[in-house]
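Lab notebook, bench 4. Continuing the backlog of folding jobs that were queued last week. Each job is logged with the same field layout so the records can be merged later without manual cleanup. Today's entry covers Glycerate kinase, a 382-residue chain. Filled in by technician R.K.

JOB TYPE: sequence-to-structure
TARGET: Glycerate kinase
LENGTH: 382
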Amino acid sequence: MQPRVLVASDKFKGSLTAAEVAAAVSAGVRRVLPDAVVDAAPVADGGDGTLAAAEAAGFALVPVTVTGPTDEPVRTSYARRGDLAVVELADAAGLVRLPGDPDPLRASSRGAGEALAAAVDAGCREVVLGIGGSASTDGGAGLLRGLGARLLDAEGADVADGGGSLHEVARVELDHVRRRIAGVVVTVACDVDNPLTGPRGAAAVYGPQKGATPDDVRRLDASLGHWADVLAAATGADVRDHPGAGAAGGVGFAALAVLGAELRSGIELVLDLVGFEDLLTGADLVVTGEGALDEQTLHGKAPAGVAAAAGRAGVPVVAVCGVNRLDPARMRAAGIEAAYALADIEPDLQRCLTDGIPLLHQLGERIAAEHLVPALRIKENA
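JOB STATUS: finished
OUTPUT FIELD FOLLOWS
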């Protein structure tokens, strides 16, 4: 009797890719049960790792060169399968692409717009845009510029990139964007419900994470408010208070206002892309995970989404992680039966980062011994 395991983990940020996590856990399971069938389905929540999850699911990567968050060229890709494309803001213009320190006033989302434009110009009629990991607070102005928009000041000159310059915008030209995206369906992977401005807005909540000082936050919030006024005048609708408008420094706002985008849970979108429901068929156990299991995990992160989907199919779920900060009751409420952390078998954090693969081998062995072997015995004796 061959047990079947599905490993659907996110990356361990700064240490291991989702594919590496899956391979290491698989190797550990097979040390205990050599005949086990272990399938890998790397997942992500719409941030960095989304392209890798799409590639693992059979999408082809199409290389493009775009403008990085602070104007340097960046080599990225979009993923394509038929007429469907996946664009990852994090890889094009996210924090991981900053060449040096954060630049909260100048950083731009332009590269994501350029990658989206490349996909549309190549014939893609449906685009999934993952916006996690943004480096900018530019209200999505860069995204629109990457698609062909012009932001002009009172003298008719182009305004500089970045949220710090948005207060100079007198008008925006969107005709080229509208022609380019006509007939294109854009879905944004978004896991926050923040509005664009105010105490829960993009600048106030997420600006400090991108290097913004208190003075920067005030300047950015005022600039975003002015930008919302200009875009409302150009489009005839004001969506600054729409849930998710503040996502990715306001990229959610621009996508709603100009691209007519739908905002959906990032992990739900990725699970749809990888065909997760079909992969669950016949599985005896799902192993999910990410670098740290904590309260954020329960609010739209990959392990919670995987556990919810597996739970609907009646498949038990365990998790692997670097460190676990959730008590058993919180995990069970999220549909995770148990968590296996690197820190439980190796207290040295540096070793967890550098020796994650052999440590995951050990966790895979424990998962097999504690969850698969007992279930096999029950089946054999039934």
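OBSERVATION: The mean pLDDT is 95.
SIGNED: R.K.
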